[in-house]
Write a structure and sequence with these properties.
Layout lengths: L1 E5 L7 H12 L3 E7 L18 E4 L8 E5 L3 H12 L6 E8 L11 H11 L4 E6 L8 H16 L7 E6 L9 E4 L3 E6 L2 E5 L5 E5 L2 E7 L13 H4 L4 E7 L6 H7 L8
Parallel strand pairs: 1-2, 1-5, 2-4, 5-6, 6-7, 8-13
Antiparallel strand pairs: 3-4, 7-13, 9-12, 10-11
């Protein structure tokens, strides 16, 4: 299978190397196009006011893997790859393996998910994959699950343009509780900004924050109630898979509000 890999942690990130190596070893045709530096939490931003540069990477990946370092955002990388760098369209776009979870409302800020979403927008089935830890460097269980998931998709293809958001708990494979389909949950934070003063007496802020609430999204009333929330399932060592789409229309709120009439003047 022709697979295009991107990420938001950068071309030198351990996670993308583990993913590319595992999929190449499994016999897939791999192209990697990643930012030249970490671009976490950039969402779906695009570079519009300066040129985007791409440079072939000739070391660090096994022979046969085509790799590029790109000056743009994660979404830029996938757009550039599809329009200018790959000779044949990929059959799958895979973003990751991200260092840190992309669960609940965090996906709105995620460069990892946005890179995969760019593939979905272009009608290519896509996967965003994350290791739910900011410290663990053991990406092998997640990489091996990626190989298994891709193999399953070869025999049972996803609908065109489908995006799967996959989060893997940071434990040995033997400790996985299983794999569950999950709905997107909610993560809320407190103390998001830490106020500091620089040596010249000027105030600045450092974004930080701690999670204070995790759970199901109360707005998602059109989803089956027996589906666990991703933020809850990952805590029980389940690998979570959540289908996402770029159409943000809220179906149940639209049904509630469409009877309201507004006057232009």
């Amino acid at each position: 299978m022709r697979i295009l890999i991107g990420n938001d942690d950068g071309i030198h990130a351990v996670g993308v190397h583990a993913l590319a190596e595992a999929l190449a070893e499994a016999g897939h045709d791999i192209t990697v196009v990643c930012p030249d530096r970490e671009r976490s939490a950039t969402g779906h931003s695009l570079t519009l006011h300066q040129p985007i540069r791409a440079q072939a990477v000739t070391s660090g990946f096994r022979e046969g893997i085509q790799a590029w370092s790109c000056s743009g955002t994660p979404a830029d990388c996938i757009k550039l790859a599809l329009d200018a760098l790959v000779s044949q369209p990929p059959q799958l776009v895979l973003s990751g393996i991200n260092q840190g979870q992309n669960l609940g409302t965090d996906i709105l800020y995620s460069g990892t998910v946005s890179a995969a979403m760019e593939g979905s927008i272009e009608g290519i089935s896509s996967i965003a994959m994350s290791l739910a830890s900011y410290t663990s460097q053991d990406f092998q269980p997640a990489a091996q699950f990626a190989c298994k998931l891709v193999a399953d998709l070869q025999s049972q293809a996803l609908p065109v343009g489908t995006l799967l958001n996959v989060n893997v708990p940071p434990v040995p494979a033997a400790e996985f509780a299983g794999v569950v389909w999950a709905r997107q949950g909610v993560r809320r934070y407190v103390d998001v900004f830490e106020k500091r003063v620089d040596p010249r007496g000027k105030t600045y802020y450092w974004i930080a924050g701690e999670v204070v609430e995790e759970g199901a999204d109360a707005i998602a009333k059109d989803l089956p109630e027996d589906l666990p929330a991703d933020v809850e399932a990952i805590q029980k060592n389940y690998i979570t898979i959540t289908p996402l789409h770029y159409n943000l229309t809220c179906k149940n709120r639209l049904e509630q509000l469409r009877s309201r009439q507004f006057q232009v003047f």
